[in-house]
Amino acid sequence: MTGVAPVGARRGRDRKAERLMPVPGRSRFEGGDEPSVAVIGGGIAGLAAATLLAERGARVILYEREETLGGRLAGHRTRLADGSVVTMGRGFHAFFRQYYNLRGLLRRTDPALARLTPLPDYPLRHSGGLTDSFARVPRTPPFSALGFVALSPTFGWRDLAAMDARAALPLLDVRVPEVYDRFDHVGATEFLERVRFPQAAHHLAFEVFSRSFFADPRELSAAELLLMFHIYFLGSAEGLLFDVPNEPFPQALWEPLADYLLSLGVTVRAGSPVDAVHPRGGGGATVLTDTGATAHDAVVLALDTAGLRQVVAASPGLGTGPWRDDIAALRSAPPFLVSRLWLDSPVRDDRPGFLGTSGYGGLDNVSVLNRYEGEAARWAAQNGGAVVELHAYAVADAQRGRVQDQLVDQLHSVYPETREAHIVDSRHEWRSDCPFFPVASHQQRPVVRTPHPWLTLAGDAIRCELPVALMERAATTGFLAANALLAPWGVRGQVLWTVPRAGRSWVLRALGGLVAR
What we know:
Blueprint: E1 18-20, E2 36-40, H1 44-55, E3 59-64, E4 75-79, E5 85-89, E6 95-96, H2 100-106, E7 116-118, E8 124-126, E9 131-132, H3 143-151, H4 157-162, H5 165-168, H6 178-183, H7 188-195, H8 199-211, H9 222-234, E10 242-245, H10 249-263, E11 267-270, E12 274-279, E13 285-289, E14 292-296, E15 298-301, H11 305-313, H12 321-329, E16 336-343, E17 354-358, E18 365-368, H13 374-383, E19 386-392, H14 400-414, E20 423-431, E21 455-457, H15 470-486, E22 496-498, H16 506-516
Parallel strand pairs: 2-3, 2-15, 3-11, 8-17, 15-21
Antiparallel strand pairs: 1-22, 4-5, 6-10, 7-10, 8-9, 12-13, 13-14, 16-19, 16-20, 17-18, 18-19
Helix pairs in contact: 1-15, 2-15, 7-9, 11-12
């Protein structure tokens, strides 16, 4: 494939979003000098790296241990008790408008992002009866914060006055990477207690952010919490509303992208776990799988935390002692549960597509998939029912059956009409493969570059000195990993975008300066 590569990341509505230029170079490999690159891992990070490398003309082999691509956003077909064939996935994910680089990846096969549909609101409900909404909150700081206070039933002007202004000052001007130097040694819950946030607002807003990391906020680094606040609230004008795929993840996202990769000449080896990576004299490495060994000029390790630890441990020639120790120290977050229920009667028409919850036992959110996903909507229409998904993060109870039953009981408390519904069928996904960012762990986390110039790392567990998180961190590090390999070969990488790396509002910075004095 020749010519200009498809459009990559682009800024959204925020005029203060920052552009990151790659090292200058030629547009692609030419004249038979195309290197062979192994990308190990077919999640978002690996797909981003493989896409960019292939667009620049590299010969790419993409190794994925599962039979399907997508990583933690993969899906698989399953037959329900009523004979319907449906797609079961790893659970709801919000595609925020700040996810510039992820959205750039998706634009390769969907330039207008027509396969994403906006949800009109992101309500957060506490069991005490209060509900926050972001539908009417302005998107541009500082009006976003002022609008939230003005509209919120859980966080009012009195609560704002009761806060410890000096302790809250860092929220007004989060700077990356300095925020890690200042707050990585503090727990998220400890920080909130210092600031004196009202308990209801603590549960509804900040605990929801921390649980996006599938972690107990008492153990999560406060730096990650502040970073989330900056990305979604005071650092960006994109707002807190988001989009979701209008079909299951494989059909909407990964199958089209796999076809695109094949059109670029990528060899996709699904169902092919990598056992080890052994450096070769003179550069590059040999990748070992159960079907043999393949030599490559460069390698991108885009694995989840456990997979990265496993491959590095089985590859004694990789890296230095301290680097290997840092990899071995990576931790996974506690287990989480995604329960999907196919019900024979509908939920009320006013129920949102996604609802964050707090105070309902282990239930963290409820999704009504037939509100936005085509496959679920077709099943619900045909059967006069609903498709509902329940999430529980950081599950401590080892009795999985009991946790699953408790989530259904809590669903009945949140949406009482579901008590009368019969469950046609259900699926339960238990996983514990998300990265964990505990207190005082940032400096130990590995970065994209490694001790080998031919080896890079990518994924949401990888340290990145940019204000990115979750899926966007995966996509961004995937592109950065490819950029780092392309630059020494004299080939230009991809332009990336990010929300501002410091507090965007001079008003808030000035206010912070007054408080500090």
